[in-house]
Amino acid sequence: MTDRAFEAAYLRVHSGGLFPERIEKALAILESCTLCPRACRVNRLKGEMGTCRAGSRPEVSSYSPHFGEERPLVGLHGSGTIFLTHCNLRCHFCQNYSISHLGEGREVSFEGLAGMMIELQDRGCHNINFVTPTHFVPQILKALAGAIDLGLRVPLVYNSSGYDSATALELLDGIFDIYMPDFKFARPGPAREYCQAADYPEAARSAIKAMHCQVGDLVLDERGIARRGLLVRHLVLPDGLAGTDKVVRFLAEEISPHTYINIMDQYFPCGDISPRSPLGRRASGEEYQEAVRLALAASLTRLDNRQRHRLVFY
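Predicted structure:
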């Protein structure tokens, strides 16, 4: 079920004959990997592994229509999520710890990954939503070329931690219609302690600016379904550790006051978090409401309006 009035960005790149060069350039990066700000420079084509623990072939944990995503992605028939294995950020509190840290998933062929995209489109999904795609950008591009030949037409969603590099995002210019990064931490201290990435705030700001430059503010069709643009996620953490005040001011002042943001309340202690840690408890209802107040005070009014819940997504 596709919208004939809509043309995904990647179709224009494909019709212009630019895909082979883009794929070749992306795969070459795996020889000395700099796909994320960690810049491990391992040769993944020879089996070397960096922080993310990903190799040269795509790895998938699961794929299915997802109805727990943001309202503009879910629409009537769900978001076609493909959960990629491993993660370059590897937060201690990850709610998908078995996937991101323990590598739960299986290696698939490029043809197999293309087939997953087509299957999700055929099931009526409004988009193909790659979850934690940063470390598999070259593999996604190679599989995408095959999926286009098989008839892929729906928008692509880049659903990342926000810890993305200019190198990866340049490769994706004109490919992804929708960017959905997290903005997890606004200060280096918590990012260093919980993700071993003191540069996360700086990297996330740069990435979100580049994403917005490519796709602009989120655009919805007449049904309220996302077609193109930026959607930012921000998880409320106990004791203000996420720096929500700085996050919302950055989005309103340096990105756009029309930024669509999902302020999420589903944090709970898991992964490697000790009960004695500041993150050893759930964020309270009062902390969540304060985060919403801060967003509105910063003039961000496009808040995802799902009813508050305690379901775990990721």
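Summary: The domain at 9-297 is CATH 3.20.20.70 (TIM Barrel).
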